[in-house]
Write a structure and sequence with these properties.
The protein is an alpha/beta fold and about 140 residues long. The protein has one domain: Glutaredoxin (3-Layer(aba) Sandwich). The protein has a five-stranded mixed beta sheet with strand order 1-3-2-4-5. It is elongated, with a radius of gyration of 23 Å. About 20% of the residues are buried.
Length: about 140
C-alpha cells in the first residue's frame, strides 16, 4: 500500500488513469488496524488497482478535503472524481463488491448500487391460509 501525503498527493493522483482506492486511517485507531488484513487481501485479489493510504494525523488537510468524519474511511476514485465511500470497519466482500460493480450503468447514473427486492416466498401466504382454514374447520366442527 502506497502512502500519500500533502506533498505527493497531486502528482500521484494526476498520474492515475483508472480506478484507485484511498484509505484514510490513523496510527491510534484500533478499527484501522483491524482493516490491515482486509486491505492486504483486497490488494491480493486486485493487483491492477492501486490502493493508497493517508494518515489523517499527518495530512489533516487531505482528510478535510475528502470530508472524512471518522476512520477508517475508504474512498473509490477515478479521474480525480470520488465514486463511492465507506466509513468504519468494512468487510472484504463489501469492498470487493464495489470493485466488481463499479461500471454498472445504474451505479454510474445514480451514484448508488441497485438493491434487489427480496423474493417473496409463497409459503407465508400459504401458511396464513392454512391457519385460517384450520380455525374455520375447528369452529364449524365444534
Amino acid at each position: 500500500m502506497n502512502k500519500l501525503n500533502s506533498e505527493n498527493f497531486e502528482k500521484v493522483v494526476n498520474d492515475e488513469s483508472g480506478l484507485f482506492i484511498i484509505k484514510f486511517s490513523s496510527p491510534t485507531c484500533g478499527p484501522c488496524k483491524t482493516m490491515i488484513p482486509v486491505f492486504e487481501a483486497l490488494t491480493e485479489k486486485n493487483p491492477e488497482i492501486n490502493i493508497y493510504e493517508i494518515d489523517t494525523m499527518e495530512s489533516p488537510e487531505l482528510a478535510s478535503h475528502f470530508g472524512v468524519r471518522g476512520v477508517p474511511f475508504v474512498t473509490y476514485c477515478e479521474n480525480r472524481e470520488v465514486l463511492y465511500s465507506f466509513t468504519g470497519v468494512t468487510p472484504l466482500g463489501n469492498l470487493q463488491y464495489v470493485i466488481n460493480n463499479i461500471n454498472d450503468p445504474y451505479f454510474r447514473e445514480n451514484g448508488e448500487f441497485r438493491s434487489e427486492e427480496p423474493k417473496k416466498s409463497p409459503w407465508f401466504a400459504l401458511s396464513i391460509i392454512a391457519v385460517i382454514l384450520f380455525f374455520i374447520t375447528v369452529y364449524f366442527l365444534v
